[in-house]
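# step 3/5: fold
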Amino acid sequence: MSDPLTPYGNRPMVTPIVHAVNYEYRDFEVLRQITDGEIDGYTYHRDDNPTVRTVEKKIAEMEMAEDCILCTSGMAACTMVFLTYLKSGDNLVLFHDIYGANYKVSLILERLGVDVTWLDADQSPELAKHLKPNTTMIFLESPTNPLCKTVDIAAARLAADKVGAMLVVDNTFATPLHQNPLKLGARLVIHSATKALGGHNDLMAGAIAGSKEDYDRLWFTRQAVGSTLDAYSASLLERGLKTFVLREERMASNAMMVAEFLSGHGKVSRLRYPGLESDPGHKVARRQMHGGFGGMLAFDVGDDIEDAKKFISSLKLVYHAVSLGCTESLVCIPFLTTMLYLPPERRTIFGVRKNTVRLSVGVEKAEDIIEDLRQALDGLK
């Protein structure tokens, strides 16, 4: 059977988008070889797709993993991991400082009999004290969403070893350019590929990188629940990967300059950016990150939520929108957006305030971003 990506024997510069849902078998022996795993081949899109598979291998290489599996969104990736490795009676450790939609998934897991422990990322140095004999998985982000706190991944691995738990790290904020959790002891690394990997606000995808054995287990779950990424989105994602390093280097450089500006403005308080020496997580970030500290910042504006709203409404270059890691600079108030998945009292329990702002720095000129932030902040009384 000819490779659908190389029909003429030479490789196209752009991976073809294979929209086929199913494939004709040349004969029964080919069918047997494919289904027995003796040869690479495709049968049905829910199982695999050649466009998707090409992108999976590229992301695996970026994360220094044996393999990678793509699915329909970052939350689909998280949920696939939970469904694959957790069972009734297991304890799952989550940090409040993770993307808010994981709270909704935790409610489903609790209905299925999974015991969930919630911690603040500030408690991570004492993680071992909070683990139980039945702790099966520790799931964390670093830097965290939305407060950009830093969690020591290698230390979390040592704590996990005490009870035999697996460590799963969401690397969306840091990206593979700045951090490789598998090399720090994580078993799996997750990405919302919608964000920096895609980078253009035009696709949704999730990625899970790890060992070949874990790929096989996760593939079973993906095939069963039907969360395989479509070929067109995979093609857009591959296009984004071609400029990923250029974009992310620019974002990290811009973010450092923006953070230095914000650190000196009177209307900004509690600024969190791991690249600043004044940041509580800087020492850990400097040890486990490389090539920069990403494009995400969190800070409090003025005295209350009305100050934060006025600040955002006054911005001219920076967009008021959710998501992150794209070419445009984006800003939002997590209490009103990304944390809406949580009850009001849980949105602030770990440090988010009503006037906390999350900023995703884009690829515009740094001086233009800073000037926009300056004029909006200076407009506050």
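# step 4/5: annotate
Residues 244-378 form a domain with the Aspartate Aminotransferase, domain 1 fold (CATH 3.90.1150.10).
# step 5/5: archive (pending)
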